[in-house]
Design a protein that fits this description.
- The structure is a single chain.
- By secondary structure, the chain is mainly β.
- Helix content is 0%, strand content 51%.
- The strands form 2 sheets. Strands 2, 4, 5, 6, 9, 10 and 11 form a 7-stranded mixed beta sheet that branches. Strands 1-3-8-7 form a 4-stranded antiparallel beta sheet, with no helix packed on it.
- A hairpin with a 4-residue loop joins β7 and β8.
- The relative contact order is 0.32.
Length: 119
């Protein structure tokens, strides 16, 4: 069992960058496939990126976002560059035992961190 804890959200202007971190409160993240999701007001939670043996991105963030992990620090990151107002959402880190982009495939979820991109 693992409890992801996100940090690093905030307010940034369009074109700017943020790096989100996902640390583990208990457990080892390297044992899991890790994903980032986001949810904007009034919208469903959507897949952003995942990392396991390889990485995979949603088309909307491909080329702008990079997911990575540092097993020594038990942390997963999401580097977000060239941010757009439509990237505004609560971002969630989640752990899965299978490789998937579906939220229902992820077992452990963090509490989320707000990212707001101003135009």
């Amino acid at each position: 069992q693992v409890q992801p804890v996100e940090s690093g959200g905030g307010l940034v202007q369009a074109g700017g960058s943020l790096r989100l971190s996902c640390a583990a409160s208990g457990g080892t993240l390297s044992r899991y496939f890790m994903g980032w999701f986001r949810q904007a007001p009034g919208k469903d939670r959507e897949f952003v990126a995942r990392i396991g043996g390889s990485t995979y991105y949603a088309d909307s963030v491909k080329g702008r976002f990079t997911i990575s992990r540092d097993n020594a620090k038990n942390t997963v990151y999401l580097q977000m560059n060239s941010l757009k107002p439509e990237d505004t959402a609560v971002y969630y880190c989640a752990a899965a035992v299978i490789t998937t982009t579906e939220p229902r495939g992820y077992v452990y979820w963090g509490q989320g961190t707000q990212v707001t991109v101003s135009s």
